[in-house]
């Protein structure tokens, strides 16, 4: 195929498609509506906080092979940080209990037999719930599978909310099982947590753009595509661009890698009836401007993050300039004002961070000879609400996810909302970009 590949959308799905197309020797033009690429995984300078932040904390697992291939392709694997072992510190703030889940490296889950490594208070019988999840059928929810107990309360419920961005009563057990099959069931080697050392853009976006530029791809930011015109012969013949119609060559092909709501709008004319997910869940991220990285020790200091049970805060990340908190499936907080949420979350994370303060700092603080490390009032903060962070990973929405191919022969779809077999994740987005280019090659 000699024509150009036009990629609409500069999130990770679009960047992945553009890189894949370039690797197969195609000419590439990428159109991004916003001022910068990255979409829902981006970093930016926050003037109010006076530092650079990510729109939201993102965690990767060593099992995310497409993401690591992508990082290798753009030479950015070493921009990630993490503990290097499958460890997950947790705090239950209801009972002031702090523990670390330490998975066995291999496939045999020895860790479940060791009280020092597993979830405190869990009973082995509860593991049956995980077996039920792995065997779940299409209409089954996460709650249908889990057995009541501490394994659910202190691990599987928080994990499923993070993975699915949907409450367990509605979350698809099949999607959760898909994640488990690619991680937990393969053993700890597949579950080592990673996150960007500096920021999402520094790891996943800027090196990709540099690679695309070096390969001659054209990336046009501030270039919103507002329509797809078809020629009556089953192909897209024109993209409606801010400066006017952009006519496509006879062999040109289009990857639509925009968000689900934008895809629904753009496809309504040329492909009426095209199914696209239409329910969404929000994610709240709170960034507190406080530099604690050198002051936090123990497992939290080593991992760089911890899970939180028993409050509204769910995950806390201790970064160079900020302490950041994620609350997934956060539609239930839509009516809460940001000031009160920031105060409640700060109160919760102080209970997680205080026991992890390096002992010398704790001692000095008690004698009053050192500045207060953890103020009781929240430090300057930014509350970011991604209202449509991901599609709601319910069993009904799962049925609306389309594959890459469409009825138009030079148009394919990409994005975390397409039928990747995974919940809406970086891994799913990157895989969708690759699948889209493979589908084009076969069209
Ligand atoms: C707060 C938050 C936390 C998350 N945490 C995690 C995590 O820990 N781990 C994980 O794996 N995943 C996580 N995710 C999910 C992950 O960020 C997404 O799955 C992924 O970034 C989606 O990429 P995408 O390319 O499919 O979509 P997007 O990133 O939404 O990209 C779509 C792009 O299309 C552009 N666009 C839209 N309309 C047009 C148009 N008309 N013309 C041109 N361009 C257009 C948009 O501006 C955008 O750049 C999180 C998401 C959020 C929001």
UniProtKB/TrEMBL annotation:
What stretch or stretches form a coiled coil here? Answer: none
Q: Which Gene3D superfamilies match?
A: FAD/NAD(P)-binding domain (3.50.50.60)
**Top-level taxon:** Bacteria
Which GO-annotated molecular functions does the record name? oxidoreductase activity
The record's annotation in Pfam families points to: Amino_oxidase
The chain positions of domain Amine oxidase read 12-289, 329-436
The residue range of the signal peptide is none
Name the chain's protein. Answer: FAD-binding protein
User: What organism does the record attribute this protein to?
Assistant: Lichenicoccus roseus
């Amino acid at each position: 195929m000699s024509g150009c590949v036009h990629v609409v959308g500069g999130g990770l799905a679009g960047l992945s498609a553009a890189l894949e197309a370039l690797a197969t020797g195609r000419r590439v033009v990428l159109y991004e509506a916003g001022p910068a690429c990255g979409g829902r995984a981006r970093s930016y300078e926050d003037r109010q906080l006076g530092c650079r932040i990510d729109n939201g904390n993102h965690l990767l697992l060593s099992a995310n092979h497409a993401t690591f291939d992508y990082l290798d392709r753009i030479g950015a694997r070493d921009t990630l940080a993490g503990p290097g072992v499958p460890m997950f510190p947790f705090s239950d703030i209801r009972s002031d209990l702090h523990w670390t889940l330490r998975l066995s490296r291999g496939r045999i889950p020895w860790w479940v037999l060791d009280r020092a490594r597993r979830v405190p208070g869990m009973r082995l019988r509860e593991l049956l719930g995980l077996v039920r999840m792995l065997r779940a059928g299409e209409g089954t929810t996460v709650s249908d599978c889990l057995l009541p107990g501490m394994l659910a309360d202190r691990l599987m419920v928080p994990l499923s909310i993070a993975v699915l961005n949907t409450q367990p009563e509605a979350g698809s057990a099949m999607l959760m099982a898909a994640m488990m099959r690619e991680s937990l069931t393969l053993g700890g080697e597949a579950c080592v947590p990673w996150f960007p050392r500096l920021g999402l853009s520094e790891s996943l976006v800027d090196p990709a753009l540099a690679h695309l530029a070096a390969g001659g791809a054209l990336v046009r930011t501030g270039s919103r595509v507002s329509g797809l015109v078809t020629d009556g012969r089953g192909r897209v013949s024109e993209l409606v661009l801010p400066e006017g119609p952009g006519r496509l060559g006879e062999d040109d092909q289009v990857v639509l890698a925009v968000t689900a709501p934008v895809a629904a709008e753009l496809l309504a004319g040329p492909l009426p009836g095209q199914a696209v997910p239409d329910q969404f869940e929000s994610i709240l991220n709170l960034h507190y401007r406080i530099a604690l990285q050198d002051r936090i020790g123990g497992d939290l200091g080593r991992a760089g993050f911890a899970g939180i049970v028993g409050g509204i805060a769910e995950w806390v990340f201790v970064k160079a300039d900020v302490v950041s908190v994620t609350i997934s499936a956060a539609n239930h907080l839509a009516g809460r004002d940001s000031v009160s949420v920031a105060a409640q979350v700060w109160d919760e994370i102080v209970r997680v961070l205080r026991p992890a303060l390096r002992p010398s700092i704790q001692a000095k603080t008690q004698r009053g000879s050192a500045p207060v490390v953890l103020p009781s009032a929240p430090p300057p903060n930014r509350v970011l609400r991604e209202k449509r962070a991901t599609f709601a990973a319910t069993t009904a929405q799962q049925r609306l996810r389309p594959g890459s191919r469409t009825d138009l022969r030079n148009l394919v779809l990409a994005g975390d909302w397409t039928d990747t077999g995974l919940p809406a994740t970086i891994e799913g987005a990157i895989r969708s970009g690759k699948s889209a280019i493979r589908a084009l090659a076969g069209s």
